[in-house]
Design a protein that fits this description.
VC0467-like; 5 helices; about 190 residues; 10 strands
Length: about 190
């Protein structure tokens, strides 16, 4: 039986010239990938003018002393749906651990825990996600567009949003300044 190369727990980096402006310099944390499809959360761009306090107030949670951090653009699908990527030291009713590296929660209990100071020690919030149907990401990986890299949780929690794309290429031993925006044909 042939085993597929699933990308759960890795990061997708948009190559220059990906062809979709929504994904220019995108960094996507792949949270699930199997024969049924894939789901990832964008961590390379913020939503202008939207902070955590705005999100908490929309769901009627008192932000208390929680920092009003910017919200990430998680992807073009279900852009009003929130997700929290967080350290594995907290778990809620729908939390999934991603390849033992970080966790993903998508229900209000994680936001409530963060606001009350009893949530995960490290976290980031995103609206929307990137999704692929069965075999779609696998097919996209055969064309110019995405580079997958294996990195640790410091990509999420120890790197500024604006630096994640460059960090990912550097982790793969690639200087992104030397990349062209077109793929060649042999």
């Amino acid at each position: 039986m042939e085993t597929a190369n699933f990308l759960t727990g890795q990061f997708l980096l948009a190559m220059p010239g990906i062809g979709d402006p929504r994904f220019e310099q995108a960094v996507i944390a792949v949270c699930a990938h199997d024969q049924k499809g894939a789901l990832g959360i964008g961590i390379g761009a913020m939503i202008a003018g939207l902070g955590l306090h705005d999100v908490l107030q929309q769901v009627k949670i008192d932000p208390g002393d929680t920092p009003n951090v910017p919200i990430h653009f998680g992807g073009p699908m279900e852009t009003r749906r929130g997700f929290v990527l967080h350290s594995c030291d907290w778990g809620g009713q729908d939390t999934i651990v991603v390849a033992g590296k970080w966790s993903l929660s998508g229900t209000i209990d994680v936001l409530r825990a963060i606001a009350e100071g009893r949530g995960p020690s490290r976290w980031l919030v995103a609206l929307g996600y990137a999704g692929w149907g069965a075999g779609q990401l696998d097919e996209e990986m055969t064309r110019h567009g995405w580079l997958n890299v294996d990195d640790d949780e410091a990509m999420l929690f120890g790197t500024d949003t604006a630096e994640r794309w460059t960090r990912g290429f550097n982790a793969a031993g690639i200087d992104p300044r030397l990349l062209g925006s077109e793929s060649g044909r042999a």
